[in-house]
Amino acid sequence: MGNEKTETGFVSAKDRTSCEATLQMLEKARRDGVTLDLDRGYDMKPCPIGEVSACCKHCYMGPCRLNPKDPYKKVGVCGATIDTIEARNFGRNVAAGSASHNDHGRHILGLFKGIIEGRVKDFKIEDTLKLERVAQSVGIETAGKDVLEVAKELHDELEKTFSNVNGEMPFTKRAPEALREQWRKDGIMPRGAMVEVMEMMSRTHIGCDQDYNSLMKQISRTALADGWGGSMVATELSDIMFGTPSPTLAEVNMGVLKEDHVNIIVHGHEPAMFEGMLAAVYDSFYIEQAKAAGAKGINLVGMCCSGAEMMSRHGIPHAGNFGSTEAIMVTGAVDAMVVDIQCIKQGLVEVARCYDTHLITTNSRAHIEGATHIEFDEMDPRKCTDQVLAKAIARFGSRKMPIEIPKIIQKGIHGFTHEYIEYMLGGTFRGSYTPLNDNIINGRIRGVAGVVGCTNPKVKQDSIHVELVKELIKNDVLVLQTGCSQISLAKAGLLVPEAAPLAGPGLAEVCETVGIPPVLGLGSCVDNTRILIAASAMVKAGGLGNTIADLPAAGCAPEWMSEKALAIGQYFVMSGVYTVFGIGFPAIKDTKFYNLLFDGLEKQGYGKWGTAADPHEIAKMMIAHIDKKRKALGIDKVRERTLVDMSDRRDLAS
Q: Fewest C-beta atoms under 10 Å: which of 172, 177, 395, 578?
C-alpha cells in the first residue's frame, strides 16, 4: 500500500511497524479511537528548513531561516553563515545529549558514595572484582586495601569526571595511547563534563564563537566527555553496585504480560529504581495482597533502556522498545507504568488515561503534567515502591478495560560485556581479545559493527535495524548491539546461537565454535561505552593497528531520534569510528561544516560521519569502510574457505 492514507484516514498499520505485537495494538488503538505516536509520527511533517539545521533561533533578531537550496547567498541577521549556524545547532544538540548522560552518571556516582558512607542501606557493592579492575584502570593501587577503601579512592577519582576544570578525565586513560596523544595534540582532550557542556553553550551564544572549525573542537570535547565520562561512569559503577551482566536467556515482546497477574512496567534509564522495584515485588505482603485482589502474583517487566539493563543482569522479561511504549498500554493489562528519565513520551499520559493505567513518574528531574509523581529516594526506596505496588494491585482488583495481550514472545541471549567477551575468547586464567583479532586477521570475521540506538516513528518501526543487521552478519560482520536496537533484533530472533546459519560462512564458524549468536546484546544506550572499551582492548591485543581508527569496524544508529544519539555518534567518530546515521542528518550536504563531519575529521585521523536511509545502502557503506581498513592493515587478501578441523576449533576456543 505504500504510505498513502486509507479511507479511514490512516496509513496501513503494517507500514508503521514490523513488530507483530505492536501492529496488533496499533490496530486495536485505531478501533478504540486512540491515536498513538506511530500515527502522530507519520502525520507530523517536519519543517524542511529545521530538518537540515538551516534555522537559527539563538537570539531574537530572528529566528533566521536560511535557504537550503542556496545557502551561500544568504546569512542570518547578524551575518552568521550556514556553517556557523549548523555548527552552533549541532553543538547545542551534543551539549544536551552529553548533559543528559553526564547527569545520569553523576547521579550513579552519588549513589555509589551513599553506599560507601553507609547512608544507603538497600544497595551494596555487588562486584568487588570489577571494583578492583576499574580502580586499577584509572591508576589506583589496590593491593592490601579493603573494599571500602578502594571504593572511596575510586569515587574521589571519578568525581573529577564532572568537576575538573583542567587536566584530563580519568577514564580517558583507558583509550589507546596513540588516540590520547592525538586528542592532546588537537586540543580536544575532555576535562570535566560540567565545564565542557558550559563552554559549549557559551560558545554558541550570539556573538561568541563564529568559526565552524573552532566550534568543532568544543563539540568534540563535549561529546568525548559523554563517552569517556558520564556514560562510562554510569555503566561501570552500575556493574559494581548491581552486578556485572553475563549472558542470560530472557523473554522479549508483549506476550510477557500476564492477564492473571498484576503487571508493572518499569521504563526509563536509571537502574536503581528498577532494582528497588525488583526487591519490592518479592515482598510476601504484596504477593498476598495481589492474591487477595484475585491475581496469581505480580509480574514485573521492563521497557526501553532500564529494561535492557535488568534483562541483562537478572533475566527480567522485556516488553518492547521505545516504539512500543504507548502501544503496550492498549493491551489493557498494564496496571502501572513506572518511569524515570530520558525517552519518556508525554503522550503516555493520554494513552494511560484511555486505558485506565497508572502512569507514575519517580524522578525529580522528570515530572510529566497529568502523571502521578511518587519520588524515588535511594535511601528509602520502599517509600516509593510500596505506593506503586498498592496502586497497581488496586487497579488489578478493579479492572474494567477489556484485555488483549498479543501472544508473542521471543527468547534471546542478553548480557554480553567487554569482560565476558574477553573471558569467552580467552578463558578464566588468560582472558584475551587475541582470538577475536586473529579471526579478523585470518578473514573468518570480516570486521565488527556496533548497531545501536532508538526507533523513530518517521519510519517503519524496527525495520531498518533488522534488515541492516541481517545484511551485515551475512557478510561475516560480527554485530554488537545496545539500546532499543537490541530489542528490535531480539524480537526478530537474531540474539540466539541458532541464528548463526544466517551469518556468512566465516562468522558462522566462529559462532558455532564458541556457542554465541552472531549478534551480541550489550545493554542500554549508556552501555555503548562497553563498545569503546572492547575496541580499545582490540587495539591493545595487537595486530589491528595502533588506534581505534585503524580497526575494521563501523557503527550505525539506523533509526536515531534524540540529542543523546548525536552526542554518542560524535564521541564514536572522535574515538575513530566510522558512524552512519539512518533517516537523515541535521546538516546540509556540501556545506563546509558538513564536509568537515563527513570527510575532514577522517583526514585528521579520526572517524567520520555517514548517512543513508536504505538499510542495504547503509550496510554497503559500512562494509566498504571495513574493507578499506582491512586493506590498510594488509589483511584484505581473499582466503580460501576450508572446513574447520579440531585444531582450528581449539585455536578458536583458546
A: 177
